[in-house]
UniProtKB/TrEMBL annotation:
It holds the Pfam family FtsX. This is ABC3 transporter permease protein domain-containing protein. It is found in: Cell membrane. Residues 289-400 form the ABC3 transporter permease C-terminal domain. One of its GO terms (molecular function) is transmembrane transporter activity. InterPro entries: ABC3_permease_C (IPR003838), MacB_PCD (IPR025857), Macrolide_Exporter_MacB (IPR050250). It is a multi-pass membrane protein. The chain crosses the membrane at residues 285-309, 329-358, 370-390. Residues 24-209 form the MacB-like periplasmic core domain. It comes from Pseudoalteromonas luteoviolacea DSM 6061.
Length: 407
């Protein structure tokens, strides 16, 4: 393979060769960043959330009657709801919460030890902690295990305490990461905080993965008893009954009180997928764009090789007449594509970095690495080789005598 002759051949078609190199460089930039987005999306989806998603249903319920503005009436209906849902044969456990794990927005509180000096600022990591108002069986329903201390008991119900006094101090449960950060190298059980006394530390749950302190959470056994607030019901159902039970849930709740808007009933797996929908959709979009660019580049590679062959039939014929084998002709024709791919691979690093920086200004982008880049180079190289193979193979079929007579 004569590299010098290949360069001369490429220079005869500067524009076409330059355009193909540019397409390859752009394709490499898109392919590498698409691969990074796909890897990150898959990594997010495969993270352990710390709770069971199988056979867990959730839905939001909103009162549409002014009667629910009365806290006592509100609580009485919730109690009837719990009883009606528990009576369904497919339901194993029922609870409620003001918000779900894997949510953006919601209730946030700050937490500090009760003895924290007033003149000392609270560490920023303890500000804006997601705060959950849940039912007694919330952790049992999700299959979350207690790391230390105990789960909520009936006596921990703080609903009435808050209704009667704003200074009420409840028993609370913290996630393990928050407890260990708040009380490093100490047990948090029994400690008094501005949010209440800690009676349990639950193993980490995926509260808000998009935030830095993604596993921080405060839990109180309390119903907010506010018609204007959010109220979610959670149900643990028997395996395989998710679809059949949805109609039964709506019917049971309407019988308790019809003047309520019941939002779509969804599984926690659907909720999990929906939380990461932005990441997965973006990865899919870029993958489709990369596939399109790769397809266009393959067409360009095919056209470039076909044009290359048509213009050099005489030279190829002379080589065949002088004893060049079909394999030699095949390699000669494909060598130009390989050389172009090699040039694009060297320059493609700049494209990958540039696209990564541009995307990083609007979304969180993982940084490119050598392995992902080399993987994309191989994909582009193989695609170009496949696109070039057909015109190269056809060239080997030309008889030496016919080729040498071609003008």
């Amino acid at each position: 393979m004569n590299i010098k002759a290949l360069f001369k051949s490429m220079l005869l078609r500067k524009f076409a060769t330059g355009l193909l190199i540019f397409q390859l460089i752009l394709t490499l930039g898109l392919a590498c960043n698409s691969l990074l987005l796909s890897i990150e999306a898959n990594e997010k989806m495969s993270r352990d959330v710390g709770f069971e998603m199988d056979n867990v249903l959730a839905f939001q319920i909103r009162p549409t009657s002014e009667a629910f503005l009365d806290a006592d009436f509100f609580l009485s209906v919730v109690e009837e709801d719990m009883a009606a849902l528990k009576n369904l044969t497919e339901v194993e456990l029922v609870s409620y919460s003001n918000q779900l794990p894997l949510m953006r927005g919601g209730n946030y509180h700050s937490i500090e030890d009760a003895n924290h000096p007033e003149d000392v600022p609270v560490d920023s990591q303890f500000n804006g902690i997601p705060t959950y108002y849940t039912g007694q069986d919330f952790f049992r329903l999700l299959g979350a295990s207690m790391h230390q201390g105990r789960d909520f008991e009936a006596a921990d119900n703080a609903t009435r305490g808050y209704l009667e006094s704003m200074d009420f101090e409840p028993n609370i449960i913290l996630t393990r990461s928050l407890a260990e950060a708040l009380y490093p190298n100490k047990s948090a059980i029994g400690k008094q905080t501005n949010e209440g006394r800690i009676v349990g530390v639950v193993s980490d749950l995926a509260i808000t993965p998009s935030r830095r302190y993604s596993h921080y959470g405060i839990f109180k056994f309390r119903n907010m008893a506010r018609a204007q607030g959010r109220l979610y019901y959670l149900l643990k159902v028997t395996p395989g009954s998710e679809q059949e039970i949805k109609k039964k849930i709506i019917s049971a709740l309407k019988q308790v009180h019809p003047e309520r808007d019941i939002k779509d009933i969804f599984t926690m797996k659907e909720h999990h997928s929906d939380y990461y929908k932005e990441a997965t959709s973006l990865a899919t979009l870029f993958s489709l764009l990369t596939a399109f660019m790769l397809f266009v580049t393959m067409i360009s590679s095919f056209a470039h090789a076909h044009f290359h062959v048509s213009k050099q039939k005489k030279l190829i014929g002379i080589r065949r007449a002088l004893g060049a084998r079909k394999k030699d002709v095949l390699v000669y024709v494909m060598s130009e594509n390989w050389l172009i791919s090699l040039i694009a691979a060297g320059l493609g690093v700049a494209s990958v970095i540039a696209i990564n920086i541009l995307l990083g200004k609007v979304i969180t982008m993982p940084k490119p690495d050598v392995i992902s880049y080399l993987s994309c180079v191989m994909i582009v190289f193989i695609s170009g080789t496949l696109a070039t193979w057909l015109p190269a193979w056809k060239t080997t079929k030309i008889a030496p005598v016919t080729a040498t007579r071609t003008v």
